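FW: tagging you since you asked about this chain on Friday. Here's the raw sequence from the shared folder, copied in full. Didn't touch anything.
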Amino acid sequence: MKRREDLTTPRQRRRIGVHYDPDAFGQFSESIARYLGTARFLVWQTGVIAVWVSWNLIMPEKWQFDPWGRGLVLLTLVLSLQASYAAPLILLAQNRQEHRDRMTTDNDRKTAERTQADTEFLARELASVRLSLADVPTSSELSDHLDRLADAIERMTARLDEMEVQQQKDR
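HL: got it, structure written out here
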């Protein structure tokens, strides 16, 4: 049976193109997104655009590389190209951050559940200890019982003494 007719195993997809590490690319996109979101980048971009426009307005026509008369087509192309790459990189970085936030939230939820279970267990243990201690006599209760026992023993001793005296008289 030919390979094409064998339906028991799936065909391997032929990969055409570049192979890359998604994690490394994600870290790269996050670094780009972090830089694009800084004031330093905005200042540099504003400076470059100001120099670009000034050069193409002030310089003689033979030195202009993007003349004002054509509507600064090259500047528009450069800014569009920057935006077309910046937007997906920023979205990728946001997706990775959202995934990390979701993982952190899941971990926090699991930790909160464990903490709640531990707290409920400890509350039950404290309640059982309190119930157990409720049956244990206090020192004042023990002292009262001992005083009563001592009184009873004293009365019994006095009675025995009386009985001995009575027996000696009867003899």
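FW: DSSP finds four helices and no strands in the chain.
HL: agreed, and Helices lie at 22-36, 39-58, 73-134, 139-170.
FW: great, closing this out.
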